[in-house]
Amino acid sequence: MASASVQAYEIIRQEIISGRFPPGHRLIESDLTALCKVSRTPVREALRRLVNEGLAEFSPNHGAQVADPGDEDLEALYELRTLIEGYGAARAATRISEAEIAELEALASQMEALVKKGADHTPEAAGANSRFHRIILEAARSARLLSVAGLVVETPLVLRTLARYSADERDRSMRHHRELIAAFRARDARWAEAVMTGHIKAAFAAIRRDLAQRSPG
Amino acid sequence: MASASVQAYEIIRQEIISGRFPPGHRLIESDLTALCKVSRTPVREALRRLVNEGLAEFSPNHGAQVADPGDEDLEALYELRTLIEGYGAARAATRISEAEIAELEALASQMEALVKKGADHTPEAAGANSRFHRIILEAARSARLLSVAGLVVETPLVLRTLARYSADERDRSMRHHRELIAAFRARDARWAEAVMTGHIKAAFAAIRRDLAQRSPG
DNA sequence: AACAAATTTATTGTATACAAAGTGGGGGGG
DNA sequence: CCCCCCCACTTTGTATACAATAAATTTGTT
Predict the structure, then answer these.
(1) How far is the CA of A39 from the C1' of D16 (A)?
(2) Per CATH, the architecture of B72-214 is what?
(3) Which CATH class is domain B4-70?
(4) CB distance from A4 to chain B under 8 Å?
(5) Considering only CB atoms, which chain B residues are within 8 Å of A40?
(6) Mutate which of B62, B144, B146, B155 to test chain A, going by most A C-beta atoms within 10 A?
(7) Where do runs of H (alpha helix) occur along chain A?
């Protein structure tokens, strides 16, 4: 069984990402002990970690609350993502193993299958997409890069991008995945970086369009 | 008075940065309670934070120990720094206030004065340099950028770069500071980014030279 | 009725006690 | 003599109790 603090972390994180804890929702330690069935000590650790990852905000003597992406400069967040994941893809191109490339292909196929079934808005698809990106970052072989990337990809907005795509955008995204794999096979760092950069820029464009559409004005 | 957990954080961090806790040194919670005069609870919080910032490493049920920079890919660390601080400088160029520019000038002057006094290897000089970089990152007006930057600038190696410079390298660094200020005055994002990139590349070159010199093999 | 001060209440911050897991050393068996 | 297992000890993980701080409410006054 997972330790109490990671259990608490995972539960609370899931509540935030799923949206059951909406932005601004206060994260009261005593309430969370009931939800997670652990004592306040591991709950506090989980909260500090979530704050560190940007999923929650914190004021001293007042506690944590769910972060509001609306407060943030989305352009900055996505610029950082292009820089960091682009660099990661470039590094990965010359370091990734055959086994990892195979994993990427499996995930790409899985996502394409889910799309064909109309299941592209499901958590399963979001998970596959996350793993795809994660494998690339791990293939870059830099612990520091991994922790830095954690700060820009592990946000509800990013994790739910797939759900915002139109059919065209979704197809483009699938093709990006395939092209990334091709770049890795060719061991071409600049190619991989370029595709990854486009992949993230496209995601940002979709999000901006989606946000404008939902709240026009 | 600062809260117990930040007090613990600052004390332990100082021990690590100063080198009194060398790489690999185990950070035993009970020992640290004695050093920081607080209980284990805030000590644990401080340790988790240091781990998050990459100053310490952690294994479950075994605790934390001081991170060893030798374990790390320095090229990756410095590439990330150029990307992140370069981007920060570019953003800052169009957002920085007059007051902040004035602060930068004051710090540049202070560092130049310290150099003239031969006091450029002191913690005072290192502090001024840190503040210089921090003001720029804050002027970029992105909380996310700030936290990401924390992961790549707050490392002992980076914080003690000044002490590694030769006379020439030091002078070049001082000139970079002045040129950055000029770029900010001109509100020229690309200029600022270029100078910052060079500034960090130069630092990396100095470190690499210094490391090779000290342990030739 | 509106404002301000004081009191209560809710919540976080810290300390300590206990439980679990890991580590190393000593004794017994091969 | 060496290896392995078991026991004692060290260290981390978790729970709970207490202290301090901030927020809300009430009460008194104007």
Answers:
(1) 9
(2) Up-down Bundle (1.20)
(3) mainly alpha
(4) no
(5) none
(6) B144
(7) 4-18, 29-36, 40-52, 74-93, 98-116, 123-139, 143-153, 156-159, 167-185, 189-214
CA distance A160 to chain B (A): 19
- CATH 1.10.10.10 range(s) for chain A read 4-70
Residue B2 forms contact with A (CB below 8 Å): no
Contacts 24+ apart (CB under 8 A), A62-65: A63/A26, A63/A27, A63/A28, A63/A29, A64/A26, A64/A27, A65/A24, A65/A25, A65/A26, A65/A27
- pLDDT tens across A72-112, in order? 889 999 999 999 999 999 999 999 999 999 999 999 999 99
Distance from CA of B71 to the nearest CA of A (A): 10
A145 touches chain B (CB under 8 A): yes
For chain B, residues classed under CATH 1.20.120.530 are 72-214
Residue A1 is predicted with a pLDDT of 62
